[in-house]
Specification:
The complex is a heterodimer of chains A (about 325) and B (about 300).
Chain A: H1 5-25, H2 29-54, H3 63-82, E1 86-88, E2 91-93, H4 99-121, H5 126-146, E3 156-157, H6 172-195, H7 197-207, H8 209-214, H9 219-245, E4 247-248, H10 255-268, H11 275-293, H12 297-311, H13 315-321
Antiparallel strand pairs in A: 1-2, 3-4
Helix pairs in contact in A: 1-2, 2-6, 2-9, 2-10, 2-11, 3-4, 3-9, 4-9, 6-7, 7-9, 10-11, 10-13, 11-12
Chain B: H1 3-34, H2 41-59, H3 62-83, H4 93-115, E1 131-134, E2 138-141, H5 142-164, H6 166-176, H7 178-183, H8 188-211, H9 221-235, H10 240-266, H11 271-296
Antiparallel strand pairs in B: 1-2
Helix pairs in contact in B: 1-5, 1-8, 1-9, 1-10, 2-3, 2-4, 2-8, 2-9, 3-8, 5-6, 9-10, 9-11, 10-11
Classes of the chains: A mainly alpha (about 325), B mainly alpha (about 300).
Organism (chain A): Ruegeria denitrificans
Protein name (chain A): Leucine/isoleucine/valine transporter permease subunit
GO molecular function (chain A): branched-chain amino acid transmembrane transporter activity
Chain lengths: ~325, ~300
């Protein structure tokens, strides 16, 4: 059976709405938490999909931005909960427990870091790019471990979830609503971006950089802008992820997480609007159900992944809608 | 800060560097000849260490343990090459990354399945334990000195293999033009399996040697793998000479930075703060080094192609 990709996308959104609502009625708060986790991971992967799917840049260090978002939330909330001042040289703040402020800080910080990492790593391409982004990821990982002021290896616990004006974020379904809305907004932006002149130019820069240059566009600048956007979105997801767990630790910077973000996109389908979303749902479901059956569920994940890479083209969406995948 | 301490730290840096070279040499050969980025190289390092620990546990012989490490890693490498890697040579880098990432998951969890989550221990053989006195009255662990010796010997051996033997000629030809040497009657797929097994054996050897000074545990390979990536990015991907220079640079930077940066910071900070910020900065030292090299030469010190 071949599905139209549009119907398929609508079906996914409807499912993401219906499942948590059912969980509320059936009083299954854990299911809501699981779906929230999937939605946040999807958000991070949509960010990565901008550069991986449209721009063809295989960043193996996107956990950097996820971690920065997480630590932005952790540090701000930590100072707010301990009533200590966060001294930033010329000015100081008492931290904050307000989500919108935290999101803004997370996005700006990860965007800035993405700018500098991009400036360096986009000088290269191919394998060099993969290895350099991976190395930057490790750099932040080790920095977080040695950063004793904010928990070092043990991480930081935040006791109460941050506030959002007018909502009770401690109710799982309300927090889910926030995450789901943000995912929808970002998906909408992704769809617009893909069809915009910028998105088309970025797509062209992946396929034939020389030709893009010939028509007077600077591929480096296009890629850098995409990299910054992508980092900021993944940073936002990191802040939400930290809020979901009320905990940040260096594992948010780990290279495994960078790998998993790529895996999410590959499972769903590279460069497709809903690819990261379905990938994240499948991943979280696998993690949950296989994890219940065996402690060694990563072996099965590995085998599934190998099969997708060796035999599947275009991920699950490609399989269901019968369209070839994007060639990176 | 005495000169003895400085020399000790330089030796430590060299020891770390030559072990990184064993990893990086395989990675860079595999990339140079087959054009493949192999994330699972760290798993082969782990396989070597576990094989050595298991054999040493049964026989008590360190030499047998090293032989087992070489054999197990080479065998695992050859099998992986024939079953999976072979299908990836013409695939885009993204596919190579994912497939080898999947291999890491399978190797790591598989090892945990077989050996459990607790670390194993591999003892330094009696003949090599204890310190030796170097000229100048410096006491230095004999085992670490042996590691430096083995690393340098492998470097020379690898150079001789690549520059002076028939196999080396084929490897170099394979880097330049794989269709041409296939047309000249060289069994290219056998050559690829051989190169992959060679790289794997070197990784396994490094794992076993380092396993005796650290603990042997699941996931031990990936931090080393990523350092080896930094090494070959600095040295230039595909260049064994670059891998050697890069490995020594990274080894020395990391070791010396960890010792001297806090000392340097103490000159203008109080002790506690200097220790903290010095070691935090030292942990980033090699990445700063990599960044500087890349600004200067985007394809690394000895790299030719982008």
């Amino acid at each position: 059976m071949r599905l139209n990709e549009k119907y398929f996308n609508a079906l996914m959104i409807a499912g993401l709405l219906a499942l948590p609502l059912w969980a509320v009625v059936a009083d299954q708060p854990f299911t809501i938490t699981l779906v929230t986790r999937a939605v946040i991971l999807a958000l991070a992967a949509v960010g990565l999909n901008i550069i991986l799917g449209i721009g063809g840049m295989v960043s193996f260090g996107h956990a950097v931005f996820f971690g920065i978002g997480g630590y932005a939330m952790g540090i701000l909330a930590y100072h707010a909960q301990t009533y200590t001042a966060l001294d930033l040289g010329p000015f100081s703040t008492d931290g904050t427990k307000s989500m919108p402020v935290i999101w803004l800080v997370a996005m700006i910080l990860s965007g800035l870091v993405a700018f500098f990492i991009g400036l360096l790593s986009l000088r290269t391409s191919g394998v060099y790019f993969i290895m350099i982004t991976l190395a930057f990821g490790q750099m932040f990982f080790y920095f977080a471990i040695s950063w004793a002021q904010y928990g070092g290896e043990d991480g930081l616990s935040i006791y109460v979830r941050n506030d959002f004006p007018g909502l009770n974020t401690l109710a799982p379904i309300q927090f889910y609503g926030i995450c789901f809305t943000l995912l929808c907004v970002v998906l909408f932006l992704f769809a617009r971006l893909q069809a915009s002149p910028f998105g088309l130019a970025l797509n062209a820069a992946r396929q034939t950089p020389t030709r893009v240059e010939t028509v007077g566009l600077n591929p480096m600048r296009l890629k850098l802008l995409a990299f910054v956007l992508s980092g900021a979105i993944t940073g936002l997801a990191g802040a939400l992820f930290a809020d979901l767990n009320r905990f940040v630790s260096p594992t948010m910077f780990s290279w495994q997480l960078s790998g998993e973000l790529i895996v999410l996109i590959i499972i769903g389908g590279v460069g497709r609007l809903m690819g990261p979303v379905i990938g994240a749902c499948v991943f979280v479901a696998l993690e949950h159900f296989l994890g219940e059956l065996t402690d060694f569920w990563h072996v099965y994940l590995g085998v599934v992944l190998l099969c997708i890479v060796l035999f599947g083209r275009g991920g699950l969406i490609g399989l269901l809608t019968g369209k070839e995948g994007v060639h990176v | 800060m005495s000169s003895i301490l400085i020399i000790e730290q330089i030796l430590n840096g060299l020891q770390f560097g030559v072990m990184l070279f064993l990893m990086a040499a395989g990675l860079t050969l595999i990339f140079g000849v087959m054009g493949l980025i192999n994330l699972a190289h760290g798993s082969l390092y782990m396989v070597g260490a576990f094989a050595a620990a298991a054999v040493a546990g049964v026989t008590g012989s360190f030499l047998l343990a090293l032989v087992a490490a070489l054999a197990a890693a080479a065998l695992a490498g050859a099998i992986v090459e024939m079953v999976v890697i072979r299908r990836l040579y013409n695939a885009p880098h993204l596919d190579q990354v994912l497939a080898t990432f999947a291999l890491i998951l399978i190797f790591s969890e598989g090892t945990r399945w077989v050996f459990g989550s607790f670390p194993l221990f591999l003892d330094i053989p009696d003949a090599l334990s204890g310190p030796v006195t170097l000229p100048g009255g410096i006491e230095y662990p004999l085992y670490r000195l042996t590691l430096i010796g083995i690393g340098l010997a492998v470097a020379v051996g690898l150079w001789a293999l690549i520059e002076r033997t028939r196999l080396g000629i084929q490897i170099r030809a394979g880097e330049n033009d794989r269709e041409m040497i296939a047309a000249l009657g060289v069994d290219i797929s056998k050559l690829y399996t051989l190169v992959f097994a060679l790289g794997a054996a070197l990784a396994g050897l490094a794992g076993a040697l380092v396993g005796a000074i650290q603990s042997v545990q699941v996931g031990m390979g990936e931090p080393v793998l990523i350092l080896a990536f930094v090494v070959i990015v600095i040295g230039g991907i595909g260049s064994v000479r670059g891998a050697f220079i890069g490995a020594l640079l990274v080894g020395l930077t990391d070791t010396l930075g960890g010792v001297f940066l806090p000392e340097l910071f103490k000159l203008f900070m109080d002790n506690g703060a200097a220790q903290k910020s010095g070691s935090a900065l030292a942990s980033m030292g090699i990445y700063v080094l990599m960044g500087l090299v890349l600004i200067w030469r985007p394809t690394g010190l000895f790299g030719a192609r982008a």
